[in-house]
Amino acid sequence: MLALAAVVGWFTRDRWMPKSWLDKISPPGKAVTWEPLTAAGADRTRAALDRLSQPKGPVFETLSGADVVSYAFRELAQRLPGSADSVQARASGDKISMRASVNTSEIKGLGALGAMLSDREPVELTGVIRVVKPGLGEFQVQDAKIRGISVPHGMISTLLGRVDRGPKKPGVDADAMPLPLPPYVGDIRVANGKITLYKNVK
Prior knowledge:
Radius of gyration: 21 Å
Order of helices and strands: HHHEHEHEEHEEEHEEE
Shape: elongated
Mean pLDDT: 78
Helix content: 25-40%
Number of strands: 10
Distance between the termini: 57 Å
Number of helices: 7
Number of domains: 1
């Protein structure tokens, strides 16, 4: 009987136990924060890719979103407006986000939204990363914001057309930006705020 009472008490603890005690037993999850893109993060991703490339190396490597985007940004930097700075990234759940401060004169043509913008505004892109084919991936944007204002989904491809200055690559969706990948990377998955790169073992 005492054991049964203890079990019932445990599963109903949120009704009677003080919140300060609950936090100690089940501390709140770590807040997802923005991380700056760094050379060190790019180096960690490069080292992980080097390990994947080895015939007897691991079949997957898990990294932070900022590390992977730091590596990819060297290619993306050639495609983003020259005014983009303060670039940051974060991974939350199964999605990755990237944001930067951009000179809005380089992203004009957004209708009424464009008329509301100041000279510089933060642009935030959130979406998923997937492998299109060996050697090529894409960052598919599912949500975009300018100065915290959501861009209608139908205008995301238009916004990317202003932000992405590079040529489109076959197979990459209109609402996505291409990401170069080593041909031995077979899959990319984002979960729990981390990005896992999988080796193509076929």
